[in-house]
Specification:
9 strands; alpha/beta; elongated; 7-stranded parallel beta sheet; about 450 residues; about 50% helix; binds NADP nicotinamide-adenine-dinucleotide phosphate
């Protein structure tokens, strides 16, 4: 153990540092080759080196782009024969998030370089060294996708596939597709409330660096090319109505649908499924449909932006002013699309820039189709019918009900006055023969 030398790429980053410390403290590693593009110039690099050396490790800290074949080859040539390289932990990575249409070839290359190019270069330059371990740091974005992370998901999916490929050839390569570390890094430092909220809705819960180090060991002990070390909120996922990612369904026990949630403003309840929404809209008086849809939009806006209360969503305020950007705009459109069962335009938030405008759009799009006369059911009449005997037994209730029903019949054009008018009209318009037929029929002649 004391002879081995471990190369950690991205070692001056947050997780690289955690892993380097862990290798020395728990793994007994005494020789470390630590790299990143900034190397000794990176923030915290000197402190990391000092801490590791204090723990008894010999540290070489070098500035080296892991995708730069020449630079990497030169660095590896400096490794002394007395402490040959025996393991590689490749944690280097960068992010450049954006919606797919904004991902230029340069932005894709930037993110692929430390993952794809560097992994291939590292592999080629170390394949004959007889390494005992080659661990690639990947992300669950490669497995489940990530909002605005088309390039990052592809880069990590490559690492996972590459590990499978190498493993199939008997090489000790393993990809760790990590969930979310709680300790902020350059890569995750920009995550905001809305992003964390979105991840939490997907069951992704951050874990501490201590747990991360333990998960690193646990993952290493698994005989698999790809391991997903992550913390998953299975209960939270189970409460999601039917849209648990297929890969996680086996881990999640579905909980019975909860009664519709009331918004903080005490507004209308939002049914969980699109069919439920249609039914609900159908059952609402026309005047209330708009208000219900506005509540739905405001509740969704609050959820996407990570607001604690829907009251923070001013219905008339521009959504861009409230904090939406292109990624969260897509998230809002996706969530409203899911709730309404409609394919909404990707430009939804830009075409309808306030909650009120989106609600009006939804009402115009959904309500006419949903609310046709034929689709109206009369649950209130069913309830009345089942209580009719009780009403009939009470004189006052019976008289009130009869009078209200007569009112309704008149409004429907079926009341006694309308019936008399209709008969008079028909008699005026009838021929003599028709009148005689009518009298004969009515008198049973
Ligand atoms: N943090 C999380 O929650 C999380 C979750 C899933 C997966 N991961 C993965 O874990 C790894 C570490 O992430 P982190 O959060 O610790 O990010 P971080 O603090 O930004 O660390 C990334 C490190 O990679 C180095 N780097 C970038 N490109 C490089 C290259 N071409 N050659 C050598 N070094 C390079 C960076 O330093 P220079 O800029 O100086 O090169 C930096 O030190 C990444 O691969 C990431 O995809 C992290």
């Amino acid at each position: 153990m004391y002879k081995i030398q471990v190369l950690v790429t991205g070692a001056t980053g947050t997780i690289g540092g955690v892993i380097a410390r862990h290798l020395v403290a728990e793994g007994g590693v005494r020789h470390l080759l630590l790299t990143s593009r900034r190397g000794p110039d990176a923030e915290g690099a000197a402190a990391l080196r000092a801490e590791l050396e204090e723990s008894g490790a010999q540290v070489t800290l070098a500035a080296c782009d892991a995708a730069d074949r020449e630079a990497l080859a030169a660095l590896l040539a400096t490794v002394p024969a007395a402490h040959p390289l025996t393991a590689v932990v490749h944690t280097a990575g960068v992010l450049d998030d954006g919606v797919v249409s904004a991902l230029t070839p340069e932005r894709i290359d930037r993110v692929l370089r430390p993952k794809v190019d560097a992994a291939l270069t590292l592999h080629e330059l170390t394949r004959d060294l007889g390494l005992s371990a080659f661990v690639l740091f990947s992300s669950i974005a490669g497995t489940f996708g990530g909002m605005g992370q088309g390039n990052y998901a592809a880069a990590n999916a490559f690492l996972d596939a590459f590990a499978q490929h190498c493993r199939a050839q008997g090489r000790p390569v393993q990809s760790h597709a990590w969930g979310l570390w709680a300790q902020r890094s350059e890569m995750t430092g920009k995550l905001e409330g809305a992003d964390l909220n979105r991840l939490a809705r997907g069951g992704i819960v951050p874990f501490s660096s201590e747990d991360g180090a333990r998960l690193f060991d646990a993952a290493r002990a698994v005989e698999a090319a790809v391991v997903l070390p992550m913390r998953l909120d299975t209960a939270g996922l189970g409460a999601r109505s039917g849209d648990v990612p297929a890969l996680l369904r086996g881990l999640v026990r579905a909980t019975p649908a909860r009664p519709a949630r009331r918004t903080a403003a005490g507004a209308g309840a939002a049914p969980a499924r699109p069919e439920g929404l249609k039914q609900h809209l159908t059952s609402l008086p026309e005047a209330e449909r708009g208000r219900f849809l506005l509540d739905l939009v405001r509740t969704t806006v609050a959820g996407v932006l990570g607001f604690e209360s829907v009251a923070a969503v001013d219905a008339e305020r521009g959504l861009l002013d409230l904090g939406f950007d292109s990624l969260t705009a897509v998230e809002l459109r996706n969530q409203l699309g899911k709730a309404t069962g409609r394919r909404l335009p990707v430009t939804l938030l830009f075409d309808y820039p306030t909650s009120t405008a989106i609600a009006a759009y939804l009402e115009a799009e959904i309500a006419p189709e949903t609310f046709t006369a034929a689709s109206v059911t009369f649950p209130e009449l069913d309830a009345l019918e089942s209580n009719l005997a009780k009403v009939a037994a009470d004189d006052e209730a019976r008289t009130t009900l009869a009078s209200r029903l007569q009112d309704l019949l008149v409004r429907l054009g079926q009341g006694p006055e309308e019936a008399e008018d209709a008969v008079a009209g028909r008699i005026d318009a009838a021929s003599d023969d028709e009148i005689f037929d009518f009298i004969e029929n009515e008198l049973g002649l």
